[in-house]
Design a protein that fits this description.
Length: 292
């Protein structure tokens, strides 16, 4: 245990700030590259009579300047889902004509997503995050204590800002899959944090006389570190495979998970527990010597 995580907590805080701050600046200046799930647009689902290469469909869409990072999604050999900005009837007719060049097809769905629906999705996404945070604080307060609940939620906010900030910096498209990924990351990260908090509680019961709070928490982190790292590595192997082999349909979801899972492991170890230590020291009038 040569590395003392708790004594280095100010370094971890600075690293987190260095990662989050550029994202916050990008969010303030450039915002997010919102997909049609949020901004509104047209959704077209078609089924070709014969198998068609996805490149042919993308070329047809790009010919009209409508291509986006998730503009064309393939499902099987014949089915395709197209997402574009809102199209007039004339523009839709031109698109259908271009799509007919690779082969004959049947239109399964042709509908528009209005901006009102986009605003409703944004509201529900933010509401889901707020409700999830409140419920987690209540759960951790009941199982452990209120200060650990606050520390855990601050770590979750850290993970959310990291993922959102990176998507803003690189202007990656944000859609409903991104929201699902954020909620998944929150669930994963809180689980890792609770494992560490549970070990801290066990060690508090058998705390050696004279052992400082910093040393006890550091010991708890080391006792759960192997499990945390191994679990994250197992998940990352699957996510990397999905990102490169799963196709463009799930790329946004997978990339957000990749970033969030790594950030979640970091925040659980280097943010949540150290924050709780600082809260306890502040409770004891900020005198570290009193924390033993």
């Amino acid at each position: 245990m040569s590395l003392h995580f708790i004594r280095l907590r100010r370094l971890w805080y600075l690293i987190s700030l260095a990662v989050i701050l550029p994202g916050l600046i990008s969010l303030a200046v450039r915002g997010l590259n919102l997909g049609i799930d949020f901004t509104g647009g047209s959704i077209l689902e078609i089924r070709y009579e014969q198998p068609v290469a996805v490149e042919k469909v993308r070329e047809a869409v790009a010919a009209l300047g409508l291509e986006t990072s998730r503009g064309v999604q393939q499902s099987g050999e014949k089915d395709f889902l197209l997402r574009t900005r809102h199209l007039s009837q004339e523009e839709m007719d031109k698109l259908l004509a271009e799509l007919a060049k690779p082969g004959q097809f049947t239109t399964l769905r042709n509908e528009s997503v209005g901006p009102v629906i986009g605003r409703e999705l944004t509201y529900k996404a933010l509401l889901a995050l707020v409700i999830a945070s409140i419920l987690m604080i209540l759960y951790i307060t009941i199982r452990f204590e209120f200060k650990q609940g606050i520390a855990a939620v601050l770590a979750l906010i850290h993970d959310t800002l990291v993922v959102t900030g990176i998507f803003s910096i690189f202007q990656l498209e944000v859609d409903s899959a991104f929201v699902a990924a954020i909620l998944t990351v929150i669930g994963y990260s809180i689980n890792d944090t609770i494992i560490i908090f549970d070990r801290i509680r066990e060690n508090m019961r058998s705390r050696a006389k004279g052992e400082s709070l910093e040393d006890l928490v550091n010991r708890s982190i080391w006792q759960t570190l192997t499990r945390s790292v191994n679990t994250v590595l197992a998940v990352l192997f699957v996510l990397v495979a999905l990102y490169f082999l799963g196709g463009s349909t799930i790329n946004t979801f997978t990339l957000a998970l990749l970033i969030g899972i790594i950030s979640g492991m970091y925040s659980s170890i280097c943010n949540a527990s150290p924050l709780w230590v600082d809260f306890k020291l502040l409770e004891r009038k900020g005198v570290p010597k009193a924390a033993h």
